Amino acid sequence: MKQGNSSSFEIGIYTLADIGPDPLTGHTVSAKQRIEEIIQAAQLADELGLDVFGVGEHHRLDYAVSSPAVVLAAIAHATKHIKLTSTTSVLSTLDPVRLFEDFATLDVISNGRAEILAGRGAFIESFPLFGYSTNDYDDLFTEHMDLLLQLNKNEKLTWSGKFRPPLNQAEISPRPIHNQIPIWIGVGGTPESAVRAGRFGVGMALAILGGNPRRFKPLVDLYHQAGREAGHSSEALKIGVTGHCYIAETTEQAKDEFYPYYSNYWYYVNRQRGFGMKMSREEFEQMAAPDTALFVGSPDQIVDKVLQQHELFGHTRFLAQVDIGGLPFNQVVKNIELVATEIAPKIRKALR
Predict the structure, then answer these.
(1) Alpha-carbon dihedral sign for residues 128, 132, 133, 134
(2) How many Å apart are CA 325 and CA 332, to the nearest integer?
(3) Which of 14, 98, 101, 274 is in the most buried spot, having the most CB atoms within 10 Å?
C-alpha cells in the first residue's frame, strides 16, 4: 500500500452522496449501497496514494449522507493515510460544539487525519429542520464560525452569542491529536465569502463548477488581502479547488460517456430547486471546452486544466467529484484510478 504523497500540492476525491437514477438503465441504488460504495471509494483512494477524501452533508432523501463525521469514522477504520474532510459541513445550522466534538472524535479515531470544510450549503432544508431562520443566514454562519475556531483553540471556553446558549468554562472533549483540526471555508463565488475566509484565517476551498475559472481570480485576491489585513500569515491562507470530473482515454470518449450522467445530474439538482431543464449536448460541449473549469477529458486535458488554474490561483489542493448523476460504481472506480495513476503523478512532477 502506498502512503499519501507528502508534497505541498494535495490531490483527492470528494462526494456529496447524491442518489440519482442511472439515466441509461433507470436503476437507483439504495442509501445503504451508496454509503458502502463511498467507503470502498475511500479505501481505493487511500491505497492508490491520494491525499484527501471528502464527504458532504445534506438533509434530503435524494442524498445518502446527513452526517459526514459518522461516515468518515467508518472510512477511518478502513483506511490508513488519507486525510478525511467534510465537503461541506453546513455550519449555519450545526451547533459548533457538536460539530467540533464529532470531528475531534474522528481525529482521534483516524490518528490525526480529520479536517472540517464548513459552508452554507446549496439547499436550505436544514434551517427548518433544526429550528433556524433563513433571515439569519449570514449572521448564523459568522457567529458559528467564530465559535468553531475558538473551540478548536481552547480546552475550556467561556463564550456568549446570539444564537445558542452561552458557555461558561465549558470543557471541550476530546481534543484533536495534533492540537487543532485544519478548518476550511467553502466559497461558491461571492466576494463576501472570500473576504470572510481571509479574515478568519482559514483555508478557502473554491467550488468551481463551470465557466471560465478566471472569474474566480478576484476572489483569490480579496481572500489574500483580507487575510493579510487581519494579520494572518501566508501559510495560514491556503486555497483549494473542487470540481466535477470525468476522465477517459480521450477527451471525446470522456464527453460521450459522461454527457448522459452530467445532464441527468443537473436535471435533478435543478428540479430540487424548482426548475428542471435537460442540458443539451451543445450546452455540455460548451461547459467542457478547454478554457472552462469543468474537468472532463483525457488525463492530459485534466492535468492542463489543473495546472492552468494553479497559475491563476496558486492553490495547493485539488479535489475531484467523480460520482455524480447516477454514474455506475465501476466507472467511479475507473476515474479514481485514473486520478491517482495518470493525473496526480503528472501534476506533482510539473509542480515539484
Answers:
(1) negative
(2) 11
(3) 14
* 156-159/167-171 β-pairing: antiparallel
Instruction: Tell me the three cell numbers of residue 10.
Output: 494535495
CA distance 67 to 86: 9
Distance separating alpha carbons of residues 36 and 125, to the nearest angstrom: 25
pLDDT, tens digit, for every residue of 202-260?
999 999 988 999 999 999 999 999 999 999 999 999 999 999 999 999 999 999 999 99
Q: Which residue has the cell 489585513?
A: 229
Q: Which domains does the chain have, with CATH numbers?
A: 10-351 (3.20.20.30)
Q: Is the pTM of this model over 0.85?
A: yes
Helix axes of 68-78 and 31-47: crossing angle, nearest 10 degrees? 50
CA distances from 315 to 193, 343, 348 (A): 17, 16, 13
Residue 339 gets which letter from DSSP?
I
CA separation, residue 124 to residues 58, 70, 135, 242, 243 (Å):
10, 22, 11, 21, 22
- Tell me the three-class secondary structure of 30-93, residue by residue: CHHHHHHHHHHHHHHHHHCCCCEEEECCCCCCCECCCCHHHHHHHHHHHCCCCEEEECCEEHHH
Average pLDDT over residues 170-197: 96
Is residue 298 within 8 A of residue 249, CB to CB? The reply is yes
Place of cell 459522461: 258
| Alpha helices by DSSP H, 171-291 | 191-200, 217-229, 251-272, 281-287
